Every structure is written in structure tokens, then in C-alpha cells.
Amino acid sequence: MATDADFPCALTLRFPFPDARLSNIALKAIRVDKELSPLVHRELSTVAPDDKTSTEESVLLVEYKAATNRMLRVAVNSFMDSLSLVLEVMEEMDVDVLEPPSAS
């Protein structure tokens, strides 16, 4: 079994979404792509914002551990490409996802 000593490089990323539904969609879309290297471990979850303004789990939390800085960088770059694609699809396919509703 791998220990923390096997993965000395770590990074935690937090991506806020407008609501829990959207953070959950992103989580489910990205979760299906497993890490290709056994030298990288990734955990995805949704959590409430740190500022306690809401209890809604609208933040996508991504925790990476890797054997080397290079492996961590490659994994995070790949993740960011995937997240970018998910956001583009949300923007095109979902109603009012990334734009605030206009005042009437």
C-alpha cells in the first residue's frame, strides 16, 4: 500500500461554481477519467465554500499527490484541460450557467 512518503508532492485546488448542481456535474464529468500513472493520486469531491456564506456544496475540491513535481505538473495540466472543456460545454449547453441573470 502506498504511503504519504511515496507521494511527497501535493496540491489542493478549489474551483467555486454558482451552485451545487453545476459543481456536481463537473465532478461527475471529470471523475470518469482516471489518472494514467500509478505515480499520481487524485481525489475529487464537492464541498461548501470556506467563507460560510452557504452550506451548499458548490466548490469542486481536487487533491493531488504525486511522486515527483513533474508528474504533479503533468497531471494538473491535464486536469485543467478537462475542466476547461467541461466549463465550455456548460456555457454552451446549460441555461445561464456562467452569466448572472439580467435585471429586468
From TrEMBL:
InterPro entries linked: CTAG/Pcc1
Pfam families on file: Pcc1
One GO-annotated biological process of the protein: tRNA threonylcarbamoyladenosine metabolic process
GO cellular component, one term: EKC/KEOPS complex
Family: Belongs to the CTAG/PCC1 family.
Protein name, per record: CTAG/Pcc1 family
Lineage: Eukaryota, Fungi, Dikarya, Ascomycota, Pezizomycotina
